[in-house]
Amino acid sequence: MAKILVVEDDESIRNLIKLTLQQFQYETEVFEDAESAWEYLQSESADIGIFDLMLPGMSGLELIEKIRKDEQLHNFPVIILTAKDSEIDKVIGLDQGADDYMTKPFSVLELTARIRSLLRRSVAYSEESHGFYDGGLEIDFDGRTVHVMQKQVDLTFKEFELLKYLILHKGKAVSRQELLNQIWGYDFVGESRTLDVHINSLRRKLGEPYDGWIQVIRGVGYRFVSEN
């Protein structure tokens, strides 16, 4: 049974999430502040985190930043669940290291669908252990690391999965729907704009000239190309 860690300072929302997850047979640990959640993660494990952004004391973004810098926790999947619904807030959240972003008010069915998707993706491609090396771009699929000109680039869980999927289908125009199905899951019920936000964030992190290796195929989706 998967364990979900919830950080939410609103008691009514916290209880709603806890009750919903328990009904779906998830083990749940709930906290009203980020400091308590961080202390918990130092000695206990969880499979996914659901974080509000606006919290007393340490913010949700600060908690994500600490997790991504931690050697043991840096791949811990995180869903942001917040009332901050502007596009720039979403971009900042994803750039900071969140794997998914939902806004309040929210559908509990959509939340559980995204949790199932993240759980699936966390064990996907386990049979593959090769990587991609071309010029200054080096990707270790097994170690889940990306280096550009020998400098490590920190990608979110979803960004890494997107890059890996496109590379494994190098030269092929991959449709938006295929990417949503494969990376977010066939039961994904969110906005397709989510894909564009992740792709844009991924390209910014790769920088020139590698951002150009992820090409937009108008009316279809995306294609990965490289020099070799």
TrEMBL record:
Residues of the DNA-binding region: 127-226
Keywords in alphabetical order: DNA-binding, Phosphoprotein, Transcription, Transcription regulation, Two-component regulatory system
UniProt domain Response regulatory: residue ranges: 3-119
UniProt xrefs under SUPFAM superfamilies: C-terminal effector domain of the bipartite response regulators, CheY-like
Modified sites of kind 4-aspartylphosphate: D52
Residue intervals of the OmpR/PhoB-type domain: 127-226
Keyword field contains Thylakoid: no
SMART domains (UniProt xref): REC (SM00448), Trans_reg_C (SM00862)
Protein name per UniProt: Response regulator transcription factor
Species, as recorded: Amedibacillus dolichus
